[in-house]
């Protein structure tokens, strides 16, 4: 992967870019056979909205409740056809995650009423986080200036597609009882409350002490420390700054205006839009 040219690192499928090494076409093809179960725990997040944070929280909740989970990232599109077979034989309850657009999530999740936790983040901090991540991950294009990446993000020419298309897709599910939408900003504001809400949503029963323990182990600082302990320098890649409002250190006035206008055009007056204040 290290010697791959930037333009080979992403490929397009049905109009959406995907990372060639992590999510090759055969992985996405095999997803049509994924049989979701009613008690699966599914996490959905557009890239950089807090996916790894919530994977950490969900793993802690589930192991506290006695479930044994496999190591590594639970993203369904990262699984090869072979490892997807292994997942199909795993005992309940299983943990899955995805960055896929809601329309591309295998239909069996809907058909089996699998509950989905959806994490969103305001678009300005999301693009800043994505920009830094791109430049730190060898399997993604690395030679992009901030201005170029910003304009790619605005036109949806980034891995997993347009932020706004994802948001509009989820806007239709705001009242679905099998969908819980949380924002990065509300997680930052009240992690304890959010852990409780997430645990209740998936029908896990935790004591107040267990909820407190999990929230305490899921702060940015604690997660950064345990990730670097486990993975060294690479462990830092998913834990950069962990703040709300870092966009102010990157956006030009014109970029801020452009984002505001796009946000207005696509999400103003919507329920999800109201949650994504920045
Ligand atoms: P920043 O780049 O703004 O720091 P994802 O996991 O979806 O790739 O998202 C990564 C973003 O979530 C990064 O944002 C990362 O620092 C932040 N993050 C990870 N763990 C966090 C935590 N425990 N608390 C707050 N933010 C966290």
From TrEMBL:
<dbReference type="Pfam" id="PF00685">
    <property type="entry name" value="Sulfotransfer_1"/>
</dbReference>
<comment type="similarity">
    <text>Belongs to the sulfotransferase 1 family.</text>
</comment>
<dbReference type="InterPro" id="IPR000863">
    <property type="entry name" value="Sulfotransferase_dom"/>
</dbReference>
<dbReference type="InterPro" id="IPR027417">
    <property type="entry name" value="P-loop_NTPase"/>
</dbReference>
<keyword id="KW-0808">Transferase</keyword>
<dbReference type="GO" id="GO:0008146">
    <property type="term" value="F:sulfotransferase activity"/>
</dbReference>
<feature type="domain" description="Sulfotransferase">
    <location>
        <begin position="39"/>
        <end position="270"/>
    </location>
</feature>
<protein>
    <recommendedName>
        <fullName>Sulfotransferase</fullName>
        <ecNumber>2.8.2.-</ecNumber>
    </recommendedName>
</protein>
């Amino acid at each position: 992967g290290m010697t791959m040219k930037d333009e080979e690192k992403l490929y397009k499928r049905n109009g959406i870019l995907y990372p060639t090494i992590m999510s090759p076409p055969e992985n996405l093809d095999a997803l049509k056979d994924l049989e979701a179960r009613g008690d699966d725990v599914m996490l959905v997040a557009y890239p950089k909205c807090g996916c790894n944070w919530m994977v950490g929280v969900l793993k802690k909740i589930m192991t506290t409740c006695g479930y044994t989970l496999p190591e590594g990232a639970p993203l369904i599109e990262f699984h090869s056809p072979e490892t997807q077979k292994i997942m199909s034989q795993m005992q309940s309850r299983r943990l899955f995650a995805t960055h896929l657009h809601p329309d591309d999530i295998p239909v069996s999740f809907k058909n089996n009423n699998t509950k989905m936790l959806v994490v969103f983040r305001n678009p300005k901090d999301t693009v800043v986080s994505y920009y830094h991540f791109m430049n730190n991950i060898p399997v993604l294009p690395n030679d992009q200036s901030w201005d170029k990446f910003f304009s790619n993000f605005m036109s949806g020419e980034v891995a997993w597609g347009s932020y706004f298309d994802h948001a509009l897709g989820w806007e239709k599910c705001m009242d679905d009882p099998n969908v819980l939408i949380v924002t990065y900003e509300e997680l930052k504001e009240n992690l304890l409350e959010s852990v409780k809400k997430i645990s209740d949503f998936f029908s896990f029963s935790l004591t107040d002490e267990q909820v407190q323990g999990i929230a305490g182990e899921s702060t940015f600082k604690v997660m950064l420390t345990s990730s670097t302990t486990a993975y060294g320098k690479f462990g830092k890649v998913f834990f950069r700054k962990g703040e709300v409002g870092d966009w102010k250190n990157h956006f030009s006035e014109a970029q801020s205006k452009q984002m505001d206008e796009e946000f207005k055009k696509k999400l103003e007056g919507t329920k999800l839009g109201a949650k994504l204040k920045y």
